[in-house]
């Protein structure tokens, strides 16, 4: 059974940094792209970032480019999102998601809540 | 960036009725890279359709997807009580992998 478990969320002041983790199990982690998708309170889904299976290719939304870094440790089956220079508008639930057929997101975690507020 | 516009914003129907949800892209999207997701309150999204028309694993056959180019449709043939939720389309062919703003399907 595929499982994705996010951790590392919390309350952080504007300008601060936070690192999210996503522990994966139930599949060959290195074979799949992985992504982060966020959802601000009461809003829709926003794609944040994607990383290839090897970690050699990364992609970012313009809204986080230069502030967020995505990485993975295939030996630990874990995906990361390093978030720097956080802003109030980064407040959201952050989901990790596995890349599936047609580059869709076929499995999702239950999300980590990030709140940016003073 | 490809902008996806979903309509209607809210759809009010009764169980047993047919639902038709639209997703229009600002530029052509390869059919291979158009997906639909369902999200219920307090839950993570669930993949319904990939490649515009292929059902994901475990998705009932009352859900179907169609379309090409810039116009795509999700159809639910006969609504069940558990189908009332928010539905999102997504293009996953070119970064940024944008989502539509969602259609809320509510019980009439």
How would you characterize this protein structure?
- The complex is a heterodimer of chains A (about 120) and B (about 110).
- With about 120 residues, chain A is mainly β.
- Chain A contains no helices and eleven strands.
- In chain A, the strands form two sheets. In chain A, strands 2, 4, 5, 6, 9, 10 and 11 form a seven-stranded mixed beta sheet that branches. In chain A, strands 1-3-8-7 form a four-stranded antiparallel beta sheet, with no helix packed on it.
- The radius of gyration of chain A is 13 Å and the shape is globular.
- The model of chain A has no long low-confidence stretch (mean pLDDT about 95).
- With about 110 residues, chain B is mainly β.
- Chain B has strands spanning about 5, 10-15, 20-30, 35-40, 45-50, 55, 65-75, 85-90, 105.
- In chain B, the strands form two sheets. A six-stranded mixed beta sheet of chain B has the order 2-9-8-4-5-6, with no helix packed on it.
- In chain B, a hairpin with a 3-residue loop joins strand 5 and strand 6.
- Chain B is globular.
- The interface of A and B includes residues 35, 44 and 111 of A.
Provide a compact summary of the structure:
The complex is a heterodimer of chains A (118) and B (108). Chain A is an all-beta fold and 118 residues long.
What kind of oligomer do you see? Answer: heterodimer
Low-confidence stretches of chain B: none
Largest interface (CB < 8 Å): A-B, 23 and 27 residues
Name the shape of chain B in a single word: globular
Low-confidence runs of at least 5 consecutive residues of chain A: none
Rg of chain A: 13 Å
**Strand runs of chain A, count:** 11
Rounded to an integer in angstroms, the radius of gyration calculated over CA atoms of chain B is 13 Å
Overall average residue pLDDT of chain B: 96
Q: Order of strands side by side in the largest beta sheet of chain B? A: 2-9-8-4-5-6
Q: In DSSP terms, counting alpha (H) and pi (I) runs of 4 or more, how many helices of chain B?
A: 0
- Strand % of chain B is over 45%
Query: How large is the count of helical segments of chain A?
Result: 0
What percent of residues of chain A are in strands? over 45%
Euclidean distance between termini CA atoms of chain A? 40 Å
């Amino acid at each position: 059974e595929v499982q994705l478990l996010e951790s590392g969320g919390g309350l952080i002041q504007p300008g601060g940094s936070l690192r999210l983790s996503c522990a994966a199990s139930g599949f060959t982690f290195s074979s799949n792209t992985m992504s982060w998708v966020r959802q601000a309170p009461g809003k829709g889904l926003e794609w944040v970032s994607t990383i290839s299976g090897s970690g050699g290719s990364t992609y970012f939304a313009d809204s986080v480019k230069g502030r967020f870094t995505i990485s993975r440790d295939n030996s630990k089956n874990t995906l990361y999102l390093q978030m720097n220079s956080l802003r109030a508008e980064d407040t959201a639930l952050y989901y990790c998601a596995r890349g599936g057929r047609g580059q869709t997101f076929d499995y999702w975690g239950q999300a980590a809540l990030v709140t940016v507020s003073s | 960036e490809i902008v996806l516009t979903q309509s209607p914003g809210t759809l009010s129907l009764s169980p047993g009725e047919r639902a038709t949800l639209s997703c229009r892209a600002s530029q052509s999207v390869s059919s291979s890279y158009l997906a639909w997701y369902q999200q219920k309150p307090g839950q993570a999204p669930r993949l319904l359709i990939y490649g515009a028309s292929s059902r994901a694993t475990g998705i009932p056959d009352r859900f179907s997807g169609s379309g090409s180019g810039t116009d795509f449709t999700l159809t639910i043939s006969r609504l069940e009580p558990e189908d009332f939720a928010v539905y999102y389309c997504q293009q996953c062919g070119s970064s940024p992998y944008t989502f539509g703003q969602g259609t809320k399907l509510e019980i009439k």
